[in-house]
Amino acid sequence: MGTVTRGTTNPNRLRRMDRWIAAVHGAELRRAEDPVAVDLGYGAAPWTAVELLHRLRTAAPRVRVVGVEIEPARVAAARPYERDGLVFRHGGFEVPIPQRPHLIRAANVLRQYDETEVAAAWERLCARLAPAGEHTRGGLLVEGTCDEIGRRHVWVALGPEGPRTVTFATRLASLDRPSDLAERLPKVLIHRNVPGEPVHAFLRDFDRAWAAAAPYASYGARQRWIRAVRDLAAHWPVTDGPARWRQGEVTVRWEALAPRGWTVPPSRSAAERPSAGRAPSGQKGRPDGERAADRPLSFRVET
């Protein structure tokens, strides 16, 4: 189920996404009795699936990877690369494996679909994830877009209950300003980078924080990025910390960047839904439910 994509791929292209998954989801994979990850739409060559297995096993040595492609010829071409812990199967969004996977990675897949098709694809894939339980948040769907050599990448992380976070990741030496990442926004957000939409406000504020952090450039792009994100986190619900910022990443709660008109999926319980006018526990928020798109921020350089 799905549409054949262009299949463009390159070795090491998805390294930023893979490293993030290993760091933030590795514990869930280790706890699973039989952890299975799916590389959905791996493309014309199997490099990304081979690399995913290698990177995930640094965090969860028992994990298995299944590469899934809708084009039968690509599956046949990938079969010689099968090995212990790695197989390839023909299929699409139905994810044709008997287990409910603990991870589905869908990189550069939905960008070739219409924006109106994203919600249905997310719903179908989230329904296939391993369920949440007493000691687990369940499986993880990571869906996003990157450039041809993996220098700039933006992805949404979703659980069985729906979208959780949005992560921006970049090779800092290649960055002029944070809004350069706009061209790699996932399909659900790329057409919403216009005035009045939260993602546009976020990138606007990120550029202002980056400009205010210019004095830190003398210590390198990494220090400038860390300072800019630290300022940004005073106004936006950033969920990670300096250990990830040093990698050229920042992760923000989905609710802060969701397109206007987006509603919380009905499957989410009331306890999981952020209350209007109140940030989730331990995170920054805005009084009276004010949204970032309604109020520009200013930043200053501390001397």
Any overview of this molecule?
The protein folds into 2 domains: 146 residues, 3-Layer(aba) Sandwich (Rossmann fold), CATH 3.40.50; 103 residues, no CATH class. The chain has an 8-stranded mixed sheet. With 303 residues, the protein is of the alpha/beta class. Helix content is 28%, strand content 17%. The radius of gyration is 19 Å and the shape is globular. The relative contact order is 0.11.
Count up the helices. Answer: 9
CATH evolutionary superfamily of the largest domain: Vaccinia Virus protein VP39
Structural class: alpha/beta
Question: Which strand order do you get reading across the main beta sheet?
Answer: 3-2-1-4-5-6-7-8
Main beta sheet strand tally, sense and closure: 8 strands, mixed
Q: How many domains, in number, for the residues?
A: 2
Roughly what is the average pLDDT, rounded to an integer? 87
CATH fold name of the largest domain, please?
Rossmann fold
Order of helices and strands: HEHEHEEHEEEHHHHEH
Count of individual beta strands? 8
Strand fraction band?
15-25%
Features:
alpha/beta; Rossmann fold; 2 domains; 8-stranded mixed sheet; 8 strands; globular; disordered C terminus
